[in-house]
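Dear colleague,

Following up on yesterday's call, I've attached the two folding results inline so they're easy to grep. Please treat them as preliminary; we haven't cross-checked anything against experimental data yet. The first protein's sequence and C-alpha cells come first.
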Amino acid sequence: MMNYRSMSFHQAHPNIELVKLGAKLGFNDICFQTEGGTLKPLKELRERANEKGYFKLAKELGMTISVWVHELEDYDKSWGTVTLENKLVWDKLAERYNYILTSLLPEIDYLVLTAVETEIKLTDASMLEKLVATILKVCRKNNKKLILRSFVWHPSELYNFQKAIKNIPDDVIIMTKNVPQDWHLRSIDEPLIGKVGGKNQYVELDIAGEYFRMDHVANCFTDILYRQYNSWREKGCDGISVRVDRGWQPEVYQNVVLNEAQEVNLWFLGYISTDRDPDKAWWDYACNTFGKKCAAVMIEALKTTGEVIAEGLCVERETFGDTRDKVPAINVMQEYKGSDNPRYVFDVKEGGTARAYDDNEDKVWRNPFYYNWSLFRWDESFINVYRKLRRGEPESIRRKEESYKEALLKANKSLELIASVKENLPQGA
C-alpha cells in the first residue's frame, strides 16, 4: 500500500463530490494546486476554504492537505540581487513561510514546492539547495512536511536537480512526474524515478488529460497505469499525486474526471495503491456507472480507448504537434514561428552539455515533433527515430497508416458495443 494517495486539483478548486468519491476509493490527501504568484493565490484559497469548508471536509474524511507553492515569486526589488550571500532574500522568504504556516494556512500538512515557471528560476543546484534549506527550516519548526517537485523544462535543469538532491536533507520528499517534463501517453518513464538517494519519493500523474483531449473523448489508459505503477513500487516510490481536473477559469468551467469515462482511471489507481485487485476496480466502476447488466460490455468498449487516443495523438512515440491545441499541429503546419525551443539535445550524463543540430532542414517552426516533452530530448536513443520522422521516412509513414487503421477499427468496435447496450444504460450514463 502506498502511504500518500493524493487527488490534485488545478487552481485549488476541488470538486466536493469528487473528493468524497476519492475518499471512498482510498485516497487520503487533497492537493491544492496554486499558480501565478505565492501569497495572492494562497490568500484566495484561504477565503474559499473558509467559505466552502474545504479543510473541514478533509479532516472529516480523514484526509491530509497539500498545497502548492512556487519560488521565487512575489520578488521585491528592495531585497537586492538574489544570491546565496544575500541574507535579506532568504530572511524574507523565511518570514513569508512562517506567516503561511502559522497564520494563513495552519491546517495544511504538506507544502509542495516548485522552482520553475516562476518569476525567478532557482534551478541552479546551489540556489535550489539554499531555497529548500530555508523553507525546510520553517516547515520543521511548524511540524509540516516539505515536498520538492522535480518538474523542470530542460534536461540541463534535471541534471542540476540531480546534483542538488545529493545535498538536500533526507526528510524532504521528492515528487516526480511519471514522464519527463510534461504529460504524454507514449513517453518514457521519468529518469529520476528511483534515483533520489534513498529519499521518500512520490509520483505525480495526470488522468484529467491536459495533453490528451481532456473530457472531449473517452480515454481509459489503465494498462499504461498498471505497468507504470508496478515500476514505481519496484523502485521504492511510496505515494501518488493524481491530477483529476483542469481549468484556468474553474468558476466558469472545469474539465473534471467525475462522470466521465476517465473516472475509471481514478478507481483503478485508488484500488491498486491500496493493494486491492485492479481488475475489480473496472468491474465496480462499470457496475456503479452503467449497471450490472451492461457492465461487461461497457468494460470491453472502454478498455481500448487509451490505445486509440494515443494513436490519434502520436506518430511512433512522439506527439504530432502540441496536443493541448484543438488541432495539435496547426501552428507548425502554418509555419508558425512562435516556438522558442532551441535545436539542441542535452545529454544529462555529460553534465548538461548541449549538442546543436546543423541540419538546415530541421526548422523548429515547421517541426511538429519538437517540444519540451519530446522523447529524444530526454533519451538520446530516440534521436534517430526523431530524424526519420522529421524527414518523412516512407517506412515510418507506412507504419503510421497501418496503426491508424487498426485504431479506427478498435474505435468502431467500441461504438458498436456501446450501441448494443444503449437501450439498457442508465439515464445520463
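Below is the second protein, in the same order (sequence, then structure):
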Amino acid sequence: MSTVEDPLLRLLQRHYGDRWAIRRTSHLWIATVRDRDVDHAPTLVEHDIEDFVRELEHPPPGSGRSLLSSGWLHSRLDPLDTDDDAYYQDDRSKS
C-alpha cells in the first residue's frame, strides 16, 4: 500500500515523522525511531490503529540496548579509514 493511497498513513507520517518512520502493510502498522538513543522501544508493531497511536504517544519501555549503539563501545573503538566508516578497530591493539 503506497502513501499516496493511504491518507491516514500520510497524516501519521506528518504528525509523528520527526520521531518515527511510519509504514504499514495490509494488516500491520509499523514505526521505527529516527533517534537510536531513545530509552523506549525502538520499534512498534500493532494490528489496531488506536493501539498504534497510543504507543506512538506513549512508547513502551525498551527491552535492552545493543552494545553496538552504546557510547561506551564507541569510546573504546577507533574508526578505520574506510569509505563507509562501518569498520572499527579496538584501541587496545595499537600497543
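For the second protein, one point worth flagging: The longest strand covers residues 20-24.

Best wishes,
A.L.
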